[in-house]
Amino acid sequence: MYATGHYGMALLVYAPVGLLLLEVDPALAFVGGAGVVALATLPDIDMDLPLVPHREPTHSLPFVALVAAALGAVGWVVGRGSWQPLGPSPRAALFAAGIGVIGVGSHLLADMLTPAGINPFWPIPADTITLDVARADNTIANYALLGLGALAAAVVLVLGGPG
Fold this sequence. Notes:
Blueprint: H1 3-24, H2 26-39, H3 61-78, H4 89-112, H5 139-160
Helix pairs in contact: 1-2, 1-4, 1-5, 2-4, 3-4
């Protein structure tokens, strides 16, 4: 998928989490939504890195874990400061790591919709996983995903709004 499809998938996957967070802390729900969208295209950094094959290391569960661990560590440090916008360390670390899992994980899910698919178990040799729904460059599929994600976000805002 292209960026538009990845943004939509990130919003779609985040929607149930966003709904739960709206009940607990609306500001955190919006920060989380922005975070998953910001991370939605991170795995495609491999296209700018020489010697890193596309859809291999950065399109895997170990990469999801690496990003989640790094963000969790940042969250832990932020939660130890005098200003704790994400809450105390355990909450901040869990939140940041979760945003990493959803943001990067949603990218992997979107790429599984393409014929090329991905091997989420890299570096273990395995068949790629694909649902073969649409090519990555399919404009209609990319905008359909964006539309579904935007619709899911809108439904969450309506359901999670003041009752």
